[in-house]
Write a structure and sequence with these properties.
With 498 residues, the protein is an alpha+beta fold. It contains 11 helices and 23 strands. The protein has a domain at 329-496: Neutral Protease, domain 2 (Orthogonal Bundle). The protein has an 8-stranded mixed sheet with strand order 6-5-9-3-2-12-15-14, with no helix packed on it. Strands 17-18-19-21-20 form a 5-stranded mixed sheet. It has a 4-stranded mixed sheet with strand order 1-4-8-7, with no helix packed on it. Helix 5 (337-353) packs across helix 6, helix 5 packs across helix 7 and helix 7 (392-409) runs antiparallel to helix 10. Its cofactor is Zn(2+).
């Protein structure tokens, strides 16, 4: 799934956009945005990050976050200035061990290395900072989520600027080391492999995590607070770390009955999507998130998903994102169907697997549940716009588009396509157009009309995703799984609205 933070960070100031004077050098400032049509100021130009090392301290009582970010990168052009996306107050910046100048405005940290950086140069950027993340807002909202016993740095498409400086766009993935010191008795969860804790002499404990596969900045997270942390091993030998807030109340048991089955769900999804692409598995359940999010290797869930009992459908949804969204990420945010359509369809596949309704039954029921006059059919999963990026139609109509493709090309070609796609685009980014081209090559069919109808044309398609038409709502019996799937999608969509 994915939260819907419709925020766009860092409206670049005129000073940020001005080129440095002088004609003797070809060096130019890196652009303050990567050029995503939905979020023009997200990301930055002129360099590519390979690794983030975040060594931080957090005090839950005051919400003070401080520490050092060390960023390894390489220039992609001759540079005399570059930007990092960041909101917190910076104390110092060094570039290749030299003190650099810097300014901050509108979510942009503008770095002057006080010298030219040639294309292809290796960069070591060190940023020290100290601030209260919850004091910073964009569009009147702070995405940093303070809780009674800690904080949650979890959101989409933006969260990184509230806790570390970055090139904040999925097209610049990197590996991560995350180390956070907190008062004794407080736990810290993050992505990847758990590298243990270290007691400090001041009554604090440092928690260490490492992500060894490329990761988009918005998928890096920390959950800080009082947690029941459980370590186990998946059938494939991978480490599993699950964590449950001690504040779940009556939802605790249902949450555990769901999240503890993560390795089983991953094992099932591998049958359709190919080998699991990452080094660890697990999940975190904490109040205050308001949605669920596919943080790489370890998804996070609000307890509301388990209010009516165990819910393995949201576990299937979020873990499907490990392939569709995390390993293969959007090239631009308008490609969001590649994330949400396939994660939603994974729920249909899970429903078949557990005997609670076939994918065909679920697809037909969704189709029939929305009359032709429903605004649902006017949101285009293939290009919904930033305001509707996480609209319910992106999930449900997106899943119908996936099923329509499956019916059109047949199961053999369909599942071959999914595995070939996740392998070919592994650890990178992709566009809808690239997926369509591969679908046509694998199936040997011309599929423009199918994708145009389901992804890019307003209105209810005359023919359902299984090839049938439905005249009135209620013509198809509700599959046993559908109510849980619908509740899951409603929570996902509602939680995205900030």
């Amino acid at each position: 799934m994915s939260p819907r933070s419709k925020l766009t960070l860092g409206t670049a100031t005129a000073a940020t956009l001005l080129l440095l004077t002088g004609t003797a050098s070809a060096a130019q400032p890196g652009s303050p945005g990567i050029g995503d049509p939905y979020y023009p100021n997200a990301g930055n130009g002129g360099y590519d990050v390979s690794h983030y090392d975040l060594r931080l301290n957090y005090q839950p009582a005051t919400d003070l976050l401080s520490g050092t970010a060390t960023i390894l990168a390489r220039t992609t052009q001759d540079l005399n200035r570059f930007n990092l996306d960041f909101l917190l107050k910076v104390g110092s910046v060094r570039v290749n061990n030299r003190v650099a100048g810097f300014t901050q405005e509108g979510g942009e940290l503008v770095v002057d290395p006080r010298g030219e950086l040639r294309k292809g140069s290796e960069l070591t950027i060190v940023v020290t900072y100290s601030d209260v993340p919850s004091s910073h807002q964009v569009g009147g909202v702070s995405i940093w989520k303070r809780t009674p016993d800690g904080a949650l740095a979890i959101d989409e498409p933006d969260i990184a600027p509230w806790w570390f400086p970055s090139n904040n766009h999925p097209t610049d993935k990197a590996t991560f080391d995350v180390s956070v010191a907190v008062p004794d008795g407080v736990e810290v969860l993050s992505n990847g492999l758990f590298n243990g804790t270290a007691k400090q002499i001041n009554g604090w404990t440092r928690w260490r995590w490492r992500s060894v596969k490329p990761q988009a900045p918005y998928l890096a997270y920390v959950a800080i607070g009082q947690f029941d942390v459980r370590h186990s091993t998946a059938p494939n030998g991978q480490p599993v770390v699950n964590a449950y807030s001690l504040n779940l109340g009556a939802d605790d048991s249902a949450a555990k009955a769901s999240i503890e089955r993560t390795p089983e769900v991953v094992e099932f999804l591998e049958e359709s999507f190919g080998p699991y692409p990452f080094e660890a598995q697990g999940g975190v359940v904490a109040p205050g998130i308001g949605f669920a999010l596919e943080n790489q290797t370890r998804s996070t869930y609000d307890p509301a998903f388990f209010r009516r009992g165990a819910n393995t459908y949201v576990v299937a949804h979020e873990n499907a994102h490990q392939w569709f969204g995390d390993s293969v990420s959007v090239h631009r945010w308008r490609d969001i169907w590649l994330n949400e359509g396939f994660a939603s369809y994974a729920e249909f596949l899970w429903s078949e697997h557990v005997g609670e309704g076939t994918a065909q039954e679920n697809a037909q029921y969704v189709y029939d549940s929305h009359p032709a006059t429903d605004e649902f059919w006017n949101v285009l999963p293939g290009d919904p716009g930033a305001a509707d990026q996480f609209h319910g139609a992106v999930y449900d109509r997106g899943a119908l588009a996936v099923h329509a493709l499956r019916v059109a090309v047949g199961d053999e070609a369909f599942f071959t396509l999914l595995k070939r796609w996740t392998q070919a685009k592994k650890y990178g980014t992709a566009t809808i157009e690239e997926f369509i081209a591969l679908a046509e090559r694998v199936s040997g069919q011309q599929l423009d009309e199918l994708f145009r109808t389901w992804l890019f044309t307003k209105g209810k398609p005359a023919v359902g995703p299984g090839g049938a038409t439905f005249a009135t709502a209620g013509a198809v019996a509700e599959p046993p799984s559908y109510r849980k799937i619908r509740e899951t999608h409603e929570l996902l969509a509602a939680g995205h609205a900030h």
